[in-house]
Amino acid sequence: MTEFFQQLINGLALGAIYALIALGYTMVYGVLRFINFAHSDVLMLGAFAAYFLAPVVQSAGTGASVFSAIFIVVIAAAICAVIGMLIEFLAYRPLRQRPKLTVLITAIGVSLFIEFTGQHKAVFGANTKPFPKLLPESTINFGAVSMQSNDVVILLFTALLLAGLWLVIQHTRTGMAMRAVSFNEKAAVLMGVNINRIISFTFGLGSALAAVAGIFYAMRSPGIDPLMGMKPGLYAFVAAVIGGIGNLPGAALGGLLLGLLETFAGGIPGVSNYRDGIAFAILIVILLFKPAGLLGRIQPEKV
Amino acid sequence: MNSGAKRWLLLAIVVAFVTSCFSASFNRYYLGVAIDVGISTIMAVSLNLINGHTGQFSLGHAGFMAVGGFTAARLTLTLSSSAPPDSAQGIALFVVAMLFGGLTAAITGLAVGLPSLRLRGDYLAIVTLGFGEIIRVVFQTSETFGAATGLTGIPKQTTLFWAMSVAAVTVYVVACLVNSTYGRGFIAVHDDEVAASAMGISPTRYKVTAFVIGAFFAGVAGALYAHHKQVLKPDGFDFMKSIDYVVMVILGGMGRTAGVIIAAVLLTVLPEFLRGFAEYRMIIYSLLIIALMLLRPQGLFAFQKKSQTRS
Amino acid sequence: MKRLFLRFLILVVTTGLLFTSSCSKEGGDTIKVGEFASLTGKEATFGQSSHEGTLLAIEEINAAGGVLGKKLQLLTEDTQSKSGESATVVNKLVSRDGAVAILGEVASTRSLEAAPICQQSKIPMISPSSTNPKVTETGDFIFRVCFIDPFQGTVMANFASKSLKAGKVAVFTDVKSDYSKGLAKFFKEQFVKNGGQIVAELDFNGGDKDFKAQLTAIKAANPDAVFVPGYYTDAALIAIQARQLGLNVPLLGGDGWESEKLTEIGKDAVEGHYFSTHYHPDVGSDLSKRFVDNYRKRWSGKNPDALAACAYDSALVLADAIKRAATTDGTRVRDALATTKDFKAVTGNITINAQRDASKAAVILQVKGGKFKYLETVEP
């Protein structure tokens, strides 16, 4: 039973991170209808931004404190937001009217570009780098079940971000415009929505979330490298599809589900080596019964 | 399909045969790259049947290649003691292994094609990606297929002749299929599924057929690959490998066989030319992909298609 | 249209004809040595270490006057950590660039891909750190300068049951790596033979960042020690997460652990853990100490890891063989390599045995105060 609770905690913390990444995928899909392959690399850039910022901020301030951590996360998120908007402006905007597959290949190109540039010696280098401590850490024990203070922070912060995102999308003008664009782009233009601005904003928001997720991911496993985004990126992508791509609560749900699934499957001897396969097998089963994901709407074919 | 195309096919095979007679005098590096080109062509053209002509979106083509490669290599490795690689039996065994690899891949293609009945677009893409990953994980854990090490010591059987003539056959079969009366159905499904079924064309049947045939040739390509590199590792068939072929198809212009062939050749040879740039190589490669898509979004080689009216 | 692409096919085939070889085998005043390594991709960090070791050795040999009155020229090709690439690049090095010998690779599967090509071309190949026994079984032109999985796995199993007096051990394997699986297999065999019990076997994928699920299961099995064959990048994170979960038993590893990155990433979480490797500067020859100093100087203060040391040795062994053969002819160099005996190298005295593997001692180290402390030497 202790093992079960321990795995539950492990899985929830991991799932929360997946959920944050999945939100970025799903938001971009909502407004542009394509899978942004470079999203997982923005996550990596977020972690590296924090890696370079932390020594500077911590030496100027009070070391690893809550204040410096928030400062680092905010700046890293801002940097990634700008990078996300730049990627959209340079690589995706010129192709807006083209088939989505064209944009997809460009996205793959961008993803490869970031990964291989990052691996170059003059940039980050291929080595795994030790990620600095952003917060004072401690272990909280409930009997034999142990929980990291970082995990508590991750879970609380993720919940906070999700609520904030929900408010932005449901209760602000920009959020309303985002929903309008994802519902019907042409009609949104006619209503006076500035599509370019909204899409830029979506990319910025999604990339900022990815940066936060990247930093959380690095806080749990303090070794970062230019390819660190690939695996969580792939899992979050699967999570977004399981939840129903384009659907925000769906992405959060899918992320949590996948985190729990990966953790519970990983803890069983003899099954742990099939872990990646199991995640996809469940995905396929879910899609066979719910072809638009758990919370997605099936759009009827229009003739 | 007229007899003209058959003559071209025959000629291509004869040329492949004659060229491979001289292959002993070729530089082995160029020979190896030429065989790589043949294998890429088979993969890209067969994927084009699924993604281009039929308008489905498969991200798991490397999975079919893995199935074909591993089963074919397992077969030759098991029987190689009774059929030495240089003998006639050895070559016969290789041909059987290629067909066997193609067949097992085709069966897998059927299994992957069936869900495509219910799914479309991105959902299909992710399911095929998932299948590809599951296939990789299964080979990675299966002791029969060498687990993490994979299969080693596979006899070298793939020659320029085999690679080129199988590529010619693939191009021929796909072209015949698409240009036949039956094959118009693929394009109909691609252009408008609802309209196609209203005309009495069963999209289901065409989709599954495309998957099965595409997977068959990917499996044969896998067998060629296994007997070319002589080592197979499950790691080599992750979804990045599928992406390589998707890039070829899209760069060549979806559904344009000639363009896809040129893209396959280009994307196999280009990285070789970039080797001189060492650590900058993949950076240049990725920038080229972005630049090409921005400058020629319709595909680099979107030549005029033979009188096909499209909306 | 059909004509177009069939014509195109023919074009491809005929351009093959134009590619007839134009390589200059001998000639020039350099001896070309080919190296293939994973300089980019998932395993770039290992390939780069290995490359730095090789390059240092070649530079030192050249500074000392070269071999046979000629300078060595190192031609390096990147395998991108991808399978399929090694065969192509080694073909290129051998048939186009005219390399007289090949050095590489770290990963056994990629060495296995290159080996048949070297064997068929009668070009000697030395793998610095591929430990899978199959590599040198490919043929008589394939050598290695490191020990093999069965030896190292046995060493750690004996250490666990005899020195640590562990009765119950869990094994945590990298399912993607044949190196890790090989070590785990021989460790298990020997450990069970010693009367021990394997209480849990879990797997991870190399490059994973989250190991808590498996470590929780390992903790539930209550082992005395955990064997984690794998590379330092994963091992450091595993150690951290094991501490966090309260799994406070010694972790054991192999030579893949040896790198300053282990302590740099793992910090105090890797304290007290044990691993086996090729050498330790404290007990090694002067050569080992000199190597560590020179490596630090050449690569701006970076400490060499085991991969760099093995790669350095592979180049030394090759240069020595060419010297003794007094020619760069593949077969003669091969013969010289095969008779390498008690060659003084950084990782110990190398003797090439009948299986063309290096038979040399292993050392067991413990992480203490952020440093690797020498414990014992195990002779083969």
Describe the structure in your own words.
The complex is a heterotrimer of chains A (303), B (311) and C (380). Chain A is built from 11 helices and 4 strands, in the order H-H-H-H-E-E-E-H-H-H-H-E-H-H-H. With 303 residues, chain A is mainly α. Chain A has a two-stranded antiparallel ribbon with strand order 1-4. Chain A has a two-stranded antiparallel ribbon with strand order 2-3. In chain A, helix 5 crosses helix 6. The longest helix of chain A is centred in the N-terminal third of the chain and has 31 residues. The radius of gyration of chain A is 19 Å and the shape is globular. Chain A starts with a helix and ends in a 14-residue tail after the last helix. The model of chain A has no long low-confidence stretch (mean pLDDT 89). In chain B, helix 2 packs across helix 10 and helix 10 crosses helix 11. The two termini of chain B are 25 Å apart. Chain B has one domain. Chain B has 311 residues and is an all-alpha fold. Chain B contains 12 helices and no strands. Chain C folds into 2 domains: 194 residues, 3-Layer(aba) Sandwich (Rossmann fold); 129 residues, Response regulator (Rossmann fold). In chain C, strand 14 and strand 15 form a beta hairpin. The N and C termini of chain C lie far apart (67 Å). At the A-C interface, helix 1, strand 1, helix 9 and helix 10 of A face helix 2, strand 7, helix 8, helix 9 and helix 10 of C.
Q: Please give the radius of gyration of chain C in angstroms.
A: 22 Å
Identify the CATH class of chain A: Mainly Alpha
Overall tally of structural domains of chain C:
2
Strand order of the largest sheet of chain C: 7-6-8-9-10-14-15
Question: What is the strand content of chain C?
Answer: 15-25%
User: How would you classify the helix and strand content of chain A by structural class?
Assistant: mainly alpha
Mind telling me which CATH architecture of the largest domain in chain C this is? 3-Layer(aba) Sandwich
